[in-house]
Structure formats: structure tokens, C-alpha cells
Amino acid sequence: MSQVYDLVLSGIDHEMLTRHLLPEDGKEAAAILLCRDIAPVRNRLLVTGVRLVPHEECRSREPDWITWPGKRLSDAIGEAEDLGLSIVLIHSHPGGYSVFSTIDDDSDRMTIPNIFAGWSGPEPRAGHGSAIMTPPGVIRGRLYSADGHICHLGRIVVVGQDIKIFPDEEPGRPAAMAFGSGMTATLAGLHACVVGVSGTGSIIAEQAARMGFGAITLIDFDKVEPKNLNRILGSSIKDADTSAIKVEVVASAIRRYRNNIDLVTVPENIFSRQAVLAAAKADVIFSCVDSSEGRQICDLLAHAFLIPLVDMGVSIPTRRTPEGGTAIAEVMGRIDYVHPGGPTLADRQVFTPASLRAEYLARVDPVAYASELNEGYIRGAPQEAPSVIALNMRAASAAMLEFIARAFPYRHEANKLYARTLFALADGEQEYLPESVFENSGFPAAGGLTEPLLGLPALGI
């Protein structure tokens, strides 16, 4: 262990830990975190299991002291060994003391070496560690190597209804104010992944770059054509004439006004191992694809690597007029915010087994699929180069604002009420749906680099 690691956990696990570690009696409590390492993709530990130490099993619990039984740790070691996980012991400081105490140091000097000594098999690359929680749920942690070297965890990231980032230097500082210089400074340390850089994707990339994200990964296998010059920001006639790769065109446009950004271009379909591993490095994924398969991969990615996901889509259904012509029925947009442990895009019916099958059929047997019309933006009246950039901008702006609302809360109501945003411009309506309206399949999270990648044999080694 030579580099700083981050620790990432779902909002659901963080809420459970907060309730257990900061009980009403004001006394210390303890738990064990089982963590999956995703290095070398990124130096991150994903919390894949939380084992609470029941209060009644502790031999003593005081506001500044706790003694808990070794059997819980022994059981956790056995579980972690089987899965190749790291262990992080976490307890609370109910009084708000935000640093490790001398008692904590003494406890670690005794306990952590015993974990390594009793370990069978290869030692985890990240080592094992300890952490403390202070009100209202702030976490600070450190990792140990087998030789006793200590490395503080760089950031603790909570991905839930709200996105919380606790830096090691000032773990208890308030979140930066939305739209201010503090937000810009925070974004400089974040990595956005944009999957699909055409209609909405090029606009998302533009916003992300100009807002100050420190790193952006652009994923798209496609090339610029004359028909999409009217909706890809930064594209030119020359790009269409030379069939330039979309991600390179968007990246080149960004470099004209940002010289302090890490840009990664991946000219691959998201349904490729290279693209998935590139996206896994991100702090947020923006899904700007127009296919069910693409959304399925983004959905699986968000849960496997504990990454917040913002998915968007637009459509313009049409109707037949009495005269036999075609008219606009509605102008629609949808934005979904997905976090690990919450309802997936599949749960929300953004894609279905039927839509996945139809796309598969279109790819492997176009003749059999020919009877099913793929109409793109305007349903009922296919257009070669639809003038939809204004609609794309509306959806992309709402999607970026959704991320901002989660990471830099500014709403007067709780973010849980905004799992989905729908707008219908012809009717002049906008609707927000809470998570509670969707079924939650309880899709497993934090699978990380477990093979086959994302549980899909096609992405295996």
C-alpha cells in the first residue's frame, strides 16, 4: 500500500451505520466494514458489507470508550478472507471528537497486527484499517499495511440521495455552496464520465468542462456525420467530411478553453471491457445514450462501482391529423437519478427485457428486425437531421442540475422526492417522482472487479 485510497459506501449503508453508531444513549458503538478493492482501476475501497456489533454484546459502552467481543471480528475475518476483502473497523465518537484518540491508537496497535497475523492467503493490497464516525455521520479513516505503515484515507464518499464527500483534511466542514467558488473548487477534484457524446452528451460534456470538473472521460464509438452537425457542440463541416471520431471532436473543443483538465477519450461502445473500466474511474456517470443496451451497462456500472448515475432521454411523439398529415403530440424529456441500493433503471422500466431483445435482434438479424421501425427522436415521423438541440439542451441542463442538487444541496425539499423529472413542453407541465413510486429489486451493489465484469460473460477476461 503506497498510495492514498478513498472509501466509498452507499447512502443506504451510511444511514444504517449512522443510526447504529450514534444511538440516542450517547455512548460509543462499533461496526465492521467489508471492503472490495478496485485497484488498479482506481485506488478505492467499496464497502460491500456492513456487520453491526450489537450494543448488548459489548462488555462496556461509554461516551468515550467501548469494548466489544472478538468473535464478531473473527467471523468477519473468515468472511473477508474467502472473498479477498479488506476489513475496516469503525466506531463512534458521539461527543464529536473528530480525530483518532490515543485510546484509538493503542487499540489499533493491538488489533490490526492480529488481523494480519490471523490472515490466511494473500494479504489485501489495500491492507486493513479503522475509522471513526462523529455527528451527524461524518467519517474519517486510515489504513495499515502488514508492516504497520499508516496511510490516512483520502476521502470518504457517500453515494445516496445526497452525495457526501468527507475530505481527510477537514472531515467535518460543511458542503460547499451550490454555484459558488467552493463548488468550483470541489468539482476540480471530481471525475465525470459522459457515455454518448452526441445530442445530449456533447452538451453535458460542455457543461462539465466549463463548470470545472477536474477530469472527464468521454465514451462513444461513433463518428461525426453531416446529419448530426446540428446537435453536436464543437463539431464542424470538416469533422463530418473526414468522419472524425465524436469523442475526439468534443475533447478538442474542450481543450480550446480548458488547459487544466484531464481528458480521456474512449472511442468504444460502452458494451466493451475497455469502456467499462474507463467509466469505473468516475465520480459520476452521465448516461446520454439512446439504446437500452447502453443504459443497461450504465445501470450495472453504477451499482457495481458505487457511482451515482444521471440518465436522460428526450422524445417527440406525433399524431395523425384529420387531414392525414402529421403533428406534434408532445415534446418530452426525462431525467433519472440512480444511486446504489435504490431503484435501478431496470426497476423504473427505462429499459425492459423486450427492448433489450429488440436491440439484440436488430444487431444480429437486421432482416428479421426490419418490420420494427427505429424512429429515433420523432416517433411517427422519422427525420434524418431533426432540429432538437433546444430540447437536448433543456434535458442536459436539467440532468446537470440534478447532479448539482445531490452534491451541493440547494432544494427546499428532500432530494428523495426527485428520483425522476419529467417535462412535457406542449402541455407546459413538469412532474417529479419520488423513489417510493418504483419497485426496488434490491439489486446487489459493490461487485467491483468481480469476474465476469458486471456479471456479463461478454465482458469477462
From TrEMBL:
Keywords: Hydrolase, Metal-binding, Metalloprotease, Nucleotidyltransferase, Protease, Transferase, Zinc. Signal peptide: none annotated. GO terms for molecular function: nucleotidyltransferase activity. Residues 18-111 form the JAB domain. It comes from the Bacteria. Residues 178-315 form the THIF-type NAD/FAD binding fold domain. InterPro entries: JAB_dom_prok, ThiF/MoeB/HesA, ThiF_NAD_FAD-bd, Ubiquitin-activating_enz. Pfam families: Prok-JAB, ThiF. This is ThiF family adenylyltransferase. It comes from Mesorhizobium captivum. The lineage of its organism: Bacteria, Pseudomonadati, Pseudomonadota, Alphaproteobacteria, Hyphomicrobiales.
